[in-house]
Design goal:
The chain is of the alpha/beta class. It is built from 13 helices and 17 strands. Strands 4-10-9-8-7-5-6 form a 7-stranded mixed sheet, sandwiched between helices. The two termini are 37 Å apart. The structure holds 4'-deoxy-4'-aminopyridoxal-5'-phosphate. The site of 4'-deoxy-4'-aminopyridoxal-5'-phosphate (PMP) has 13 residues, from α3.
């Protein structure tokens, strides 16, 4: 599989690249690079309404790509899949249309997890600013896992929206999303539940129908696809009920100076020329993932993650955030007396790419009483050598820093 990813042949000075920043973005396989090239060499045209051959071809491939995304998420219908530029755009779209809908009222509560990414906090704060709703963080347990009991106690008649990452990008823990959704719907069947799939989509199979959520968002660039791609899945009934947000071409049926009628789903939410190439290539990336198989990917990454966890534990003096079990393919650490940025810089000099800082989770960092962590994150192409390299580089860096 490593052969599929040309960039993995990079050397940092004389050292081979050990790429462990996959939670930020993944590298792209040849199948994806080739699909992008093929699109521009053989297909490129604007989609929908074109009378000519290339426009028909581009439209066909674009709508096939939507079908691939729908199947990947086990959506009931392609009408539920709105192409976006990624998670941030998807969550903002959901929050904006909910703000416009009148479904969220003063005093309503929006619950988010303490480990939520800024893109799953700020759009809800903006919604609160416009509607008078109140944003409430759901606490973590002392072990840094989701506090189910506290969450259940917070659910009540005012709970209107719950938004949570399936896997935390800063802690690596897997939130109990199916149980969280079930509890929210038991409390209030019309509670709207958004799942942020940024960190789960490349690592575990998802079935939005089985989950019973209302929205699911993911970013293509974290699933081996180009940047600026992704999708928002929304339950059809809800999307039908919600108003459009961005106005323009494509999202309309009829426009006159007396008024406008809007297009059917999903086009109602896709104003303007979409990222045609990106959306088609996103489907190529999802095909690549499916060819390898999410079960295999998950097992492989879980093994690497556990080995790294055990190796870091054995080094001693490292505070690994969250438990060993029930985590995705990433590990975040705090090292007393060592600044995360210093560690990241030394690791980089040894060819090991990790991410340091607040990971766009400043409220979580405030809760942890730190400015940032050092995060190692895996993708399907990482291997035992990467784990060994990360451990020996960390050991050497800590010897220098302590
Ligand atoms: N949510 C989570 C959990 C993330 O990890 C990220 C990206 N780090 C995002 C949302 C935002 O994704 P994007 O920047 O691709 O929109």
């Amino acid at each position: 599989m490593r052969e599929d990813f040309p960039i993995l042949a990079t050397h940092i000075g004389k050292r081979p690249l050990v790429y462990l920043d996959n939670a930020a973005t993944t590298q792209k396989p040849r199948a994806v690079l080739q699909a992008e090239m093929d699109y521009y060499e053989k297909v490129n045209a604007n989609i929908h309404r074109g009378a000519h051959y290339l426009s028909r071809l581009a439209t066909e491939q674009h709508e096939q790509a939507r079908g691939t995304v729908a199947a990947f998420l086990h959506a009931q219908s392609e009408r539920e899949v709105v192409f976006t530029s990624g998670c941030t755009a998807g969550i903002n779209l959901a929050a904006q249309v909910l703000a416009l809908s009148g479904l969220v009222r003063e005093g309503d509560e929006i619950l988010v997890t303490t480990d939520a990414h800024h893109s799953n906090i700020v759009p809800w704060q903006m919604l609160c600013g416009r509607t008078g709703a109140v944003l409430r963080p759901i606490p973590l347990t002392p072990e840094l896992t989701f506090d189910m009991a506290a969450y259940e106690a917070m659910l009540g008649p005012r709970t209107r929206i719950v938004a949570a990452p399936y896997i935390s990008n800063a802690l690596g823990i897997i939130n109990p999303i199916p149980e969280m959704i079930a509890a929210a719907k038991r409390n209030r069947p019309d509670c709207i539940f958004l799942v942020d799939g940024a960190q789960s989509t490349a690592h575990m199979a998802v079935d939005v129908q089985a989950l019973g959520c209302d929205f699911y968002v993911f970013s293509g660039h974290k699933v081996y696809a180009p940047t600026g791609t992704g999708a928002l899945w929304g339950r059809e009934e809800l999307l039908e009920q919600l108003p459009p947000w961005l106005g323009g071409g494509e999202m309309i049926k009829e426009v006159s100076f007396d008024g406008t009628t809007y297009n059917d789903l999903p086009f109602k939410y896709e104003a303007g020329t979409p990222n045609i190439a990106g959306n088609i290539v996103l489907a190529a990336a999802l095909d690549y993932v499916q060819k390898i198989g999410l079960n295999y990917i998950d097992e492989h990454e879980q093994r690497l993650t556990r080995n790294l966890y055990d190796g870091l534990t054995a080094l001693g003096g490292i505070d690994i955030l969250g438990p060993r079990e029930g985590r995705g393919a990433l590990i975040s650490v705090l090292i007393p007396g060592v600044h995360h940025y210093d560690l990241g810089t030394l690791l980089d000099q040894m060819g090991v790419a990790v991410r340091t800082g607040h990971h766009c989770c400043q409220p979580l960092m405030q809760y942890l009483g730190t400015t940032g962590t050092t995060r190692y994150s895996f993708a399907l192409y990482n291997n035992d050598d990467d784990v060994a390299a990360a451990l020996s580089a960390t050991e050497r860096a800590l010897n220098m820093l302590r």
